[in-house]
Amino acid sequence: MEISPDTIVFWTWGGFNLNATILYTWLVMALLTLASWLISHRLSSGTEMSRWQNLLEVIVSAMRDQIREVAQQDYSRYLPFIGTLFLFILTSNLLAVVPGYIPPTGSLSTTTALAICVLVAVPLYGIAHEGLLSYLKHYVKPTPLILPFNIIGELSRTLALAVRLYGNIMSGTVIAGILLSLTPFFFPIVMQLLGLITGAIQAYIFAILAMVYIASASSAHQATGKKQNRPAQKGDPNG
Predict the structure, then answer these.
(1) Which residues of 94-129 are buried (b: 16+ CB within 10 A; e: fewer)?
(2) For 3, which of 21, 72, 119, 173 is 20 to 30 Å away at the CA?
(3) Rounded to whole angstroms, what are the CA distances from 181 to 3, 111, 133, 188?
(4) Distance separating alpha carbons of residues 211 and 66, to the nearest angstrom
(5) By the 8 A CB rule, do 199 and 173 touch?
(6) Is 139 left (phi over 0), alpha (psi -120 to 50) or beta?
(7) Interatomic CA distance for residues 141 and 145, integer angstroms
(8) Cβ distance 98 to 91 under 8 Å?
(9) CA 175, CA 125: separation in Å to the nearest integer?
(10) How confident is the model at residue 172 (pLDDT cuts 50, 70, 90)?
(11) What is the pLDDT of residue 60?
(12) How big is the chain by its Cα radius of gyration, in Å?
């Protein structure tokens, strides 16, 4: 039983190996791109809308409401990134019902790449919201001695994101393989249903955690900035 899609190689040329991780990752991206184009190129603003447009609006509205609830800020700047993460992971996991398909999220390289995207997005959103100097000051407060711990915290958070998603998808694959070898007629249906539910939950958790990390960075800087810019009140010993 193959645990990771990295070990399944379809084609080799020189030093390049086209494994299942690369192939199915590009397949998911192509599928999402095609679906987005087919749904969005005939959008209607009237009362008559297609079923696909209704589905698209429901998905976007749900993601928008979740982001607004978590971030407590303007959702519009977070929606493209968080929504893309969620849809990619969700589609990758749900396609596991297709015979012969292996979720690329079962590869540590894929989950690490997704976590690195979050690692890069956190400072980018923070800098765009507060400015470079204000964001960098966060790492040396309340004392510059805490700088190494803040950096370690950022890296460990990224590692936790990658390992959490990889571990859950991989463990589901291993358990499914064991059960299929014991009772090959009954458990396939049950495991397919459990796999769909688990895949959807993992996509939701990854997106929510990414949103929490990004929003917390912006909120921390925003709170610090308000505290520094707060006018001195009468009777305030610090004023």
Answers:
(1) bbbeeeebbbbbbbbbbbbebbebbbebbbebbbeb
(2) 119
(3) 15, 28, 58, 10
(4) 9
(5) no
(6) alpha
(7) 9
(8) no
(9) 39
(10) low
(11) 86
(12) 22
pLDDT in tens, 153-170: 888 888 888 888 887 777
- Element containing residue 137 per DSSP (H, E): helix 132-137
Q: How many H helices and E strands in the chain?
A: 7, 2
More confident residue, 170 or 62: 62
| 12 φ, ψ (degrees, to nearest 5) | -130, 130
Burial of 44 (0-12, 13-18, 19+ CB in 10 A): exposed
Q: Please check the confidence at residue 180 and state whether its pLDDT lies above 80.
A: no
Band of pLDDT at residue 224, cut at 50, 70 and 90? very low
The residue type found at 158 is T
Residue 92: CB atoms within 10 Å? 28
What are the residue ranges of helices labelled H in 20-78? 20-40, 51-71
With residue 19 as reference, give the H or E element that holds it.
strand 16-19
Kindly report whether the peptide bond that precedes residue 142 is cis, defined as omega within 30 degrees of 0: yes
Question: Is the whole model's pTM more than 0.90, yes or no?
Answer: no
pLDDT given at position 88: 93
Contacts of 5 (CB under 8 A, 6+ apart): 19, 20, 21, 24, 102, 103, 104, 106, 107
